[in-house]
Amino acid sequence: MTLQNSNNTLFHKAVLAGCAFLLITSQAMAEVGHDDEEEHEEGHIVLTQEQIEHAGIGLAQVGSGTIRDVLPVYGVIAVNAERVQSVSARFEGSILNVTKSIGNPVRKGETLATIEANESLNTYSIKSAINGVITERAANVGEQTASRALFVIKDFSNVWAELSLFTKDLPKVSVDQEVRIHSVNSTVTANGKIVYIAPYGDRNSQTITARVLIDNPDGRWSPGQFIQAEITLSDTVAPLVVRNEALQIVEGRSVVFVQEEKGFEPRPVTLGRSDGEVTELLTGLSGNETYVTSNSFILKSEMGKEDAEHGH
User: Fold this and answer.
1) Quick check: helix, strand or coil at residue 215?
2) In this structure, how many other beta carbons lie within 10 angstroms of the beta carbon of residue 190?
3) Can you list the alpha helix ranges (DSSP code H) found in 109-251?
4) What are the structural domains, with CATH classification, of the chain?
5) Least packed by Cβ within 10 Å: which of 85, 106, 222, 291?
6) C-alpha pair distances (Å), 135 with each of 8, 33, 88, 184, 200
7) What is the pLDDT of residue 160?
8) Rounded to whole angstroms, how far apart are CA atoms 307 and 85?
C-alpha cells in the first residue's frame, strides 16, 4: 500500500468514526432534552461534563496571543544527509555472517557482519557508527567484500524539510527564521528554523531550496512526503485571540461558543487579523472568558436541531 493510499484510508476511517460519534452524541443530548426540559435555558446549550468529555470538546480561556505574518510555501521531506553512514569492510575478505537486513533498526556499536580477512585470515566485525535503519544491503554470507559499500544506514530521528522559494521571495527569507511545517492533510505539524538557503536555483522548477531541520523521534515525517509550510516574516501581539477552529458561522455571522453557568452560548464576534491558526477578536468576548476550542461544530449542530424542533 502506498503512503497516499494509507493516508486516504486513515482519513476515511476518521471521518466515519467522527460521523458515528456525532450521531451518538446528538442522540444523547436529545435524550437529555426530553428527560429534563428545564435544563435547556433560552439561548444556551446544556451538556453534562461526561458529554463534554465524550464529545472531545476542548476549552480554553480568551487571552492575548501572537498573530504571525507568514509566507506560505511548499516542499518535501528529505533524509538528513549528515545522518547517513555507508559501511564498507576495512580489509577485503570473505563474509562469514550477516546479522541485519533491509528495514532493521540498528544501534550505534551494533555488529552488522563478521568478515574473515583474505591476507591474515583473522576475523573482525563490522559495526554501525550511528543509530538508524538499514536502507541498503549488499552483503551475503560467502561473498567477497571487495571495496563496495556493504550497508547503508540512515538516521531518521531528524529530517530535512526542503522548501521551494521563488526568486521574488528571497529578500524576505533568511537563515534562523522560524517555520511551521504541515503535512498535506494537516494532521501532523512541526516547528523549526531555516538552517540553509541554497546559493543556486533549480533549473527546471526555477526555485531555490530553503532547508529546515525537523526533529522526528517518532518517525511521523517520511522522506518523500509532500508538505506545506509557513515562514514567519513578522509577528504582532494582539490583546484577545481565539483559535481558528473555535469559529463558526451562524445565521451569516461569526460566532464563538462561550461556556457560562447556564451552558454554552453562541456569542457573535467581530474579527480582526488572522494567521491561519489564531484570529484577533475586536468585539464580542472579554479576557479570561472560557470558550470552545475544538469540536464546536457539535454545538452548532445541536443549535440547528433545537431550532428545527422549536419551529414545529
Assistant:
1) strand
2) 19
3) none
4) 35-69+237-311 (2.40.420.20), 70-80+157-235 (2.40.30.170), 84-154 (2.40.50.100)
5) 222
6) 26, 59, 14, 25, 30
7) 98
8) 64
- Residue type for position 20: A
107: buried, middle or exposed (CB in 10 Å: 19+, 13-18, 0-12)?
exposed
Question: Which residues have CB under 8 Å from 246's CB, separation 6+?
Answer: 256, 257, 291, 292, 293, 294, 296
What's the confidence (pLDDT) of residue 282?
Answer: 96
- Residue-wise pLDDT for 43-81, tens only, equals 688 888 999 999 999 999 999 999 999 999 999 999 999
| Residue 275 pLDDT | 86
What is the rounded distance in angstroms from the CA atom of residue 80 to the CA atom of residue 242? 36
pLDDT tens digit sequence for 201-241 = 999 999 999 999 999 999 999 999 999 999 999 999 999 99
Angle, helices 296-311/3-35, rounded to nearest 10 degrees = 40
Low-confidence residues in the chain, pLDDT < 50: 1-40
Place of cell 458561522: 249
Neighbours of 134 (CB within 10 A): 19
Residue 282 in grid coordinates: 475586536
Instruction: Write down the pTM of the prediction.
Output: 0.71
Span between the terminal Cα atoms of the chain, in Å: 50
3-state DSSP assignment of residue 233:
strand
Residue-level pLDDT at 124: 98
Distance CA 162, CA 208 (A): 10
Return the CA Rg of the chain: 28
Q: Among positive and negative, which fits the CA dihedral 166, 167, 170, 172?
A: negative
C-alpha 15/C-alpha 20 separation (Å) is: 9
Residue for cell digits 481565539? 242
Confidence (pLDDT) at 113? 98
